[in-house]
Amino acid sequence: MARKTDIPPSYYGEPRKFDPGFRGPIHNRGCTDVVCCVVFVIFILGYIALGTVAWIHGDPRKVVYPTDSHGQFCGQQGTPNANKAILFYFNILQCANPAVLINLQCPTTQLCVSKCPDRFATYLDMQYNYRYNKSYWEYYRQFCKPGFDNPRKSVAQVLRDEDCPSMIVPSRPFLQRCFPDFITRNGTLTVANKTVFKDGLGKTRSVIDLRDAANRVTAMQQGVESGITSLLDAKEVGMKIFEDYANSWYWILIGLVITMVVSLAFILLLRFTAGVLLWLIIFGVIAVVGYGIWHCYWEFSTLRGKPHGDGDVTISDIGFQTDFRVYLQLSQTWLIFMISLSVIEAVIIIILIFLRRRVRIAIALLKEGSRAIGYIMSTLFYPIITFVLLAICIAYWAVTAVFLASSGDAVYKVMSTPDKCVYANLTCDPETFSQTNVTKVCPGSQCTFAFYGGESLYHRYIFVLQLCNLLVFLWLVNFTIALGQCTLAGAFASYYWALRKPQDIPSCPLFSSFSRAVRYHTGSLAFGSLILAVVQMFRIVLEYLDHKLKGAHNAFARFLICCLKCCFWCLEHFIKFMNRNAYIMIAIYGKNFCTSAKDAFFLLMRNVVRVAVLDKVTDFLLFLGKVLISGSVGVLAFFFFTRKIPVIQEEVPSLNYYWVPLLTVIFGSYLIAHGFFNVYAMCVDTLFLCFLVDLEVNSGSAARPFYMSSTLRQILDKKNSKRRKDKRERGR
Question: Coiled-coil region(s) at which residues (predicted)?
Answer without folding.
Answer: none
